[in-house]
TrEMBL record:
Domain Transposase IS204/IS1001/IS1096/IS1165 DDE stretches: 189-422
Lineage of the organism: Bacteria, Bacillati, Actinomycetota, Actinomycetes, Micromonosporales
Name of this chain's protein: Transposase
PANTHER family referenced in this protein's UniProt entry, alphabetically: TRANSPOSASE FOR INSERTION SEQUENCE ELEMENT IS1557 (PTHR33498)
Residue ranges annotated for the Transposase IS204/IS1001/IS1096/IS1165 zinc-finger domain, each copy included: 39-82
Length: 438
């Protein structure tokens, strides 16, 4: 007969005989075996007949009705008398409490899920469940390997992005009298940009072969599904995608184009201050005061502020103000060009805006702008693909934010494999349904 306590406890194969309170007032559940399978030999599977003795095991379990509860299972040790079976004796075991287990399977699973699905740190999950760090770390790995898919679902737009793992380290080389990088570790992430699968995988290193290797390991049908790949302006990724996914359109992320243009503006401003004032910028320099406004998009600024910016630059000595204004104008030309994305721009409109940008760069003798124009020229097919498709790598960038948060919460990782697993568990939570309010 199954009693109420057994039903409430819900440990399959175990029956609750009685509940007593110990001296601290903690409920102690006395358990007995209620599953005939428990006395089958784990090696030969034959039901044992001869009892060797009794043992008591006290596996830890989840709280019952919010209260910490202790379990005490009195179970038998059996002889296996089967001829040819290597096992002589064994104790009873059920799925929730395997032989020699000190925790119930559901406690282990809950601790693993707290890390993989609820975003807890291992330290916090260990504290919450009264377990040790290594136990929770192992529980997390087991849980993550179970819930994370081996192969990603089909992807139409793939994002490839790199993220630095830990801090770079340098050592001073006495022989050459120079600093060399001893550790500069990177992870390359593959991200689903359309269907929200999150981070599909992370690999170590950022070489072209590392990227092609991962892509080649996927089934041919999966690779064929990919229509476009978004990357930042990185020749390594470009080469890898060309090789492994020759049919896919390469799109360069506009965010990185803007970043590059802003860097050119800042470099011009710094160089003008340095050459003509003979020092670094100060709070009293008008161009220094404009440093943040110069890298903002004029389209997102109040017209009054844009006017004042242009006025301030014009009022500066020409040798300082004019080059900065030219760089700012070139950047704005580029932004105007990028703004045509998703508006179904015609070829003429695009070429007119592009021509304006190139002319602006060519008419100055600023090496910063010439370098910018060269880079835009190199990546023009991929930028044009962005204008037509509007695909951005913002999904990957969002993932990178999660990756960094995870690494900070964990105070860094020693084991890159653990880091990748933790990152993937965290970045696929939405897709696995753990971030839905229902
Ligand atoms: Zn046996």
């Amino acid at each position: 007969m199954v009693n109420d306590t057994t039903r409430l406890l819900g440990l399959d194969g175990l029956a609750a005989d009685r509940v007593e309170l110990d001296s601290d007032g903690v409920p102690v559940v006395g358990l007995s075996t209620a599953d005939e399978q428990a006395r089958c030999c784990p090696d030969c599977g034959v039901r044992a007949q001869r009892v060797k003795g009794w043992v008591t095991t006290r596996p830890r379990d989840l709280p019952v009705a919010g209260r910490a509860t202790r379990l005490r299972w009195r179970k038998r040790r059996w002889h296996c008398d089967q001829a040819g079976c290597p096992r002589r004796t064994f104790t009873e075991h059920v799925a929730q409490v395997p032989a020699r287990a000190r925790l119930t399977a559901r406690l282990r699973q809950a601790a693993g899920a707290a890390v993989a699905d609820a975003g807890r740190t291992i330290v916090q999950a260990a504290r919450d469940h009264g377990l040790s760090w290594p136990v929770v770390a192992a529980a997390f790995t087991a849980h993550a390997e179970q819930v994370l898919p081996d192969e990603p679902d089909p992807v139409t737009v793939l994002g490839i992005d790199e993220v630095r793992r830990g801090k770079p380290r340098w050592t001073f080389d006495e022989a050459t009298q120079s600093w060399t990088t001893t550790a500069d570790r990177w992870h390359v992430g593959f991200c689903d940009l359309t269907d929200g699968q999150g981070l599909l995988a992370q690999i170590e290193g950022r070489t072209s072969s590392a990227v092609t290797d991962w892509l080649r390991q996927r089934p041919a049908a999966w690779r064929k599904q990919i229509e476009a790949v978004a990357i930042d302006m990185c020749t390594v990724f470009k080469a890898a995608v060309r090789e492994a996914l020759p049919h896919a359109i390469l799109v360069v992320d506009h965010f990185h184009v803007v970043q590059l243009a802003n860097r050119a503006v800042t470099e011009v401003r710094r160089r003008m201050t340095a050459t003509h004032r003979g020092r670094r910028g100060r709070a009293s320099d008008p161009e220094w005061q404009l440093r943040n406004r110069l890298t903002r998009s004029a389209a997102r600024m109040h017209a009054r502020h844009v006017d004042r910016l242009v006025d301030t630059l014009t009022a500066l000595p020409t040798r300082i103000g004019a080059p900065i204004l030219a760089a700012w104008n070139a950047k704005e030309d580029l932004l105007d060009l990028l703004a045509t994305a998703r508006t179904h721009p015609d070829r003429e409109a695009i070429s007119r805006l592009l021509h304006r940008f190139y002319t602006r760069c060519a008419t100055t003798d600023l090496p910063e702008l010439q370098r910018l124009a060269t880079t835009i020229e190199t990546w023009w097919p991929q930028i044009l693909a962005f204008l037509h498709t509007g695909i951005t790598n913002a999904g990957s960038e969002g993932t990178n934010r999660v990756i960094k948060t995870i690494a900070r919460d964990a105070y860094g990782f020693r084991n890159p494999e653990n880091q990748r697993l933790r990152t993937r568990a965290a970045t696929t939570r939405r897709h696995r349904g753990h971030l839905n309010p229902v």
